[in-house]
Amino acid sequence: MQPQSGEALQAVAGELHAIGQRLTHLAVLLQQETPSPHLAEPGQAPEPPRPVEAEPHPAQPAPQRRKFGARWEPSRVLAWGGAGVTLLGVVFLLVLAAQQGWLGPGLRVGGGAVLGVVLIASGWWLHARTPRSAGFALAATGFAALYLDAVAATSLYGYLPVSGGLGAGLVVAVAGLLLADRWRAQPLAVGVVLGCALCAPLITGAPTSLLVGFLVLLQVAAAPVQLRRGWRVLAVAAAVPTVLAALAADLWAMVLPGTGVVAAVVLASAVGVAIALVTAFLLPERAGTAAGLVVSAPAPALLAAPLLERSAAGALAAGVAVVLAAIWAVGWFVRPVRDLLAKRFTAASGAVAAVAALQATMTAVDASAWAAALLVEALLLTVGAHLLRTPGPLLGAVCYAVLGTSAALRTDTPVSALLTHVSGQRMPGVLVGALIALVAIGIPVTAVRVGKLRELPGSAPLWSLSGLVVLYGTASATMAACLLVRDDRTGFLTGHILITLCWVVAAIVLLLRGVRVAHLRIAGMVLLPVALAKLLLFDLATLDGLARVVAFLCAGLILLAAGARYTRALSRENARS
């Protein structure tokens, strides 16, 4: 005879509970048989036992770390393995029973709650006698069972409204973490958080806003304890599931639009940034953890942009950029805050602010204006790096400049515009070409100021690349300006004449200024052959009639005058030396 569905469920739950009890019993036996590291030698008074898993108070000196192999001793493996098996049993009780219609919803929720309370009481009792992993595992499993019970009562059965379910979950999480704080046991805290975070998606079934809300509660509940104890692993265990669930909710909502997802992920990002900021203030020795939180927390909010209209998405990204830029500015300019915040955290905030500003720019601004907007931002960052003498904004300026120049090559200043005459609006070309040249000059000059480019031999490729970009930007701006005045072949030829003469004049200026400065003289010696090569290879083939005559005569006369001037300058310099 086949067993009824209710009997099958009871049999499965009973077997899982029995397995957990056997594993816990084996762990206790192993702990009792393991010799204590504090046994006194003959003739000495025995030392009182100390909790192995207890974390020291931050004010006390940290004991020597145990060897790695001790973390995998049989008692720990059995205890936490039993915790995992028991939690899976709770999930089966709550989910499979709902799918198959086994028992009643009230019995499912009530059974999970009773099991959670029994496990917590067992963990308390065991910790009072043998303060080892078994007690932590039992207590963590009990609190996770109660938390999952609240999730199921809210998402599966509708017994609790959303606010009531979140409130119940918060009470359970806070209770578990307070117990971990009292026992000074980071494994218990991590077990509570990870047990809830890893099993909650099995109950909700999809990365919904409700799941994100329950995981945000775990991060909020864990924040006071991890700040009080300085537990880095707890901070990561509470933050990573929240970020991953929020990202998954963004992707899920792109496929199946749902309500409340954007609000949930924005809340998760805000909570993450706030916890990162508080961690950076209160635990400066955990600067790496705070920096990791402030980098990862805004990601879900930025990824939610496709779920919104264009204006709202741009405003959301701009809001993230403003908040993080404000954190960076306060951490940089306000001296009392600067002394408290680690430079790593401040730099991470500024970097994420630059990424958010880039997204806001490319979301709110039309694609035809991307090049100008990005180059303006690159120029502003360059000026900021020059004034502050710090490499962080300069790195952002380089990224913006590369993206802006790439966009300009496709829209405002294509290479084809310098090779053939094409009618069209030229004002954007003038602006973008001038911005390209300014940024290409400003970035290496600022790099020298902040100490990133000191010796010419080691940075010659960068200077050469910058020089090529300057030549391209000035040429594009000159051609666009000439065509703006006269949009025909005459304007096109005039533009090329002016480009060649400008390059020749720039090379001569560099040579004259380079009488005393070596790298300027080298730049002039490189630019002059480039200008002459354009004159002989391109202008000779492209220009015709009077344009060719004017180009060659003007270039020759300028070179003759410059040669005489350079000779006199060099003679005066030699006489001084």
TrEMBL record:
- Per the record, the domain of life is Bacteria
Q: Answer yes or no on keyword Membrane.
A: yes
Q: Which InterPro entries match?
A: DUF2339_TM (IPR019286)
Which keywords has UniProt assigned to this entry? Membrane, Transmembrane, Transmembrane helix
Q: Which Pfam families match?
A: DUF2339
Membrane-crossing segments per the record: 77-97, 109-127, 134-153, 159-180, 187-204, 210-227, 234-255, 261-283, 290-308, 314-333, 345-362, 368-387, 394-410, 430-450, 462-486, 492-512, 524-543, 549-567
Q: Where is this region: Disordered?
A: 34-67
Please indicate if the UniProt record lists Transcription as a keyword. no
What the entry lists under PANTHER family is as follows:
BLL2549 PROTEIN
Q: What is this protein called?
A: DUF2339 domain-containing protein
